[in-house]
Amino acid sequence: MDPHLDPRKTARLIQHLKDQMDALPPKLKAAAKYVIDNPGDFGLDTVRTSAERTGISANGFVRLAQHLGYDTFEAFRAPFRAALTTTQEVGLGQDWLEQMQDQGPAGKLQAAAARNQLNITSRSLRLMTAERTQAIVDTLLSARRSYVTATRSSYALAYYFHYVGRMALPSLDLVPRHMGAALDDLLDIGPKDCLIALTFAPYSAGTIQALRLAGERGAKVILISDSEVIAPGIRTDHVLAVAANSLHPFGAIGGAMAVLECLLTHLIDAGSEDARRRIAAYDALRQDSGAYWSGPKLPRVGG
Question: Which of 91, 141, 194, 291 is deepest in the core (most CB within 10 A)?
Fold first, then answer.
């Protein structure tokens, strides 16, 4: 492997930048923050492109490189090619896992945990066929209302799916909304509606009750779980089976998260321009309401 492409060197450089942040002059601090937040783009882009993206002059990035002891900007940027983009990650192979495994007990455990996450993510996505995914998207788009439900740790998955998905699918509702049971918010579910349920062993009694109610009312049912058969009396229209095996006592949710991300990609794409407008409107509202923290705007570096 080209030594410039060593991901460990990139990680050390990023950590060095973080350690130096407080001591950097204000104009260089803005450039350093961009490099830390966007190592892939920084590795790909020319200094002029980075300047255009950030409003920081090209000279600002050159001065940052010099401040860190590099003779040229290119010498500073070269190691960041290890983090080009996620599309290059597969080409790096898994040598890094072998190297990690030899780094003592912590390295051995981390390598095993990382392999497990890669395996469950790969298996979950392999089971998520294009045909199955398209059928689920069609079901969601044609439903009068779509509900997503989960409990305990799976609720975090449902919350995230609803948080992003409602921008592409305004009819998407999260249940339970507050501290009640899912059934409280599904009283009016009917044949024109759809329920997405996420549950992993040991299966939630509340989620099973919601699934049964949806089936009895004739609603479309989408189950995302580690098994296609989780309890008697449940009728499903679509199932996305995900791997959830882990090295600790609780089921791993990385595979389910990857599946949900892919499903969101399909929904946003299907939402087309309407979805993009809603996303832009949400973002503008958050910006206007001060939802995002923003430091004082730094002046451009002259030159």
Answer: 194
